[in-house]
Amino acid sequence: MTEPAESIVDELLALSQQLLDAVDGGDWNAYAELCDASLTAYEPEAVGQLVRGMEFHRFYFDPKKRTDKTGKQSSICSPDVRLMGEVAVVSYVRLTQRMLEGGTTTVANEETRVWQFQEGRWQHVHFHRSESGGINL
User: Fold this and answer.
1) Which ranges of the chain does DSSP label H, i.e. alpha helix?
2) Residue 14 belongs to what domain range?
3) What's the CATH code of the domain at 26?
């Protein structure tokens, strides 16, 4: 890993966006490819518990269980990337926009994603997501 830091930062931000696109599109294969099998997470859906592994997340990708059939997209705002050798922490505010029958909604979440360089590629190994709230228009 001898790439200039700016190139690594760009790569990590692109991978983070790919991860969000996989979530928004319900693409389990793309999500699983980006994540380490031992992924850990704190997120609102886990109600304060540390989630280990991929099975908890797989539930939300099951097309029979997905209720968000309307259009949605996520954007990374105010990103910060901290490189620490073979590990990087990517923090940002995620804006998720959804089209609803009665208009639109935008929700903001603070997210921190930890990436580790393993076997020649970056793997998502941990994240923490907090809800900020949103507005309905």
Assistant:
1) 5-25, 28-34, 55-61
2) 5-136
3) 3.10.450.50
